[in-house]
Amino acid sequence: MKFPKTHTLKEIANIIQCEFVGDERFPVHGMNEIHVVERGDIVFVDHPKYYDKALQSAATIVLINKMVDCPEGKALLISDDPFRDFNKLTNHFKPFQASNSAISETAKIGEGTIIQPNCFIGNNVTIGKDCLIHSNVSIYDNAVIGDNVIIHSGTILGADAFYYKKRPEGFDQLLSGGRVIIEDNVGIGALCTIDKGVTGDTTIGAGTKIDNQVHVGHDTIIGKKCLIAAQTGIAGCVVIEDEVTLWGQVGTTSGITIGEKSVILAQSGVARSTEAGKVYFGSPAEESREKMKQLANIKRIPDILNKLNKNEG
What we know:
The protein is built from 4 helices and 34 strands. By secondary structure, it is an alpha/beta fold.
């Protein structure tokens, strides 16, 4: 998430009322999670396990809960609670804006696009040409939708990320300031839920078709011309490369990559990244031929045991 203008390190420190290490004029361009940070971004870290990863990341400003040596060319924001203060910054630069109409006056809707009754189109939404948005679709603030997109009834674009920190009093939510981007010629079925990014974008690539009741987690990037069948659940920060097929009720863990043109068969659970062009099955998913051999061998176990028992007798 980039700020509307460049701020100084001192200005950011004043917003969250914390100490800083570095030149007070050090430029700050935005804030992002570690997997999408760029030079000029703030990244937060609040666990020693991840200190080195944050300090060595592309981010040049690290919001951290301990005074540490500052890497050359970077700056630190020292906070007793980086999670809380990251939320403060999100709330400062991307505050929630209430709507008072079903279709916001700030929404931009292209020529030839049809929006059926009872839809909600939020603030600063952009919808391209010749789209068809069926009834009871909700498109939250700042979403960007390309041309020739079809979205079926009950689908929600832009709900918050499922991202929480456990506290003694309960779970504290990390605020979402990102967007959903739907590229040209995408089809989205009924009752799908596509969460916005925490600071970046959740993206559905051109030509991809999504069946009914599919969930796409925050900051996930789905490539071009993918097919995703019903009741699939894709966790946050997943990369699905071009022309991947996910059949019904596939589930994935977060932070993995599903290789180009690979196929995941129905009811598989994908716990780690897959290679391009291969077919996978099972939970945890493995190459389908190997998995089928394993299942065939399992069926042979009773016969093997019977033969062993007879031999022992």
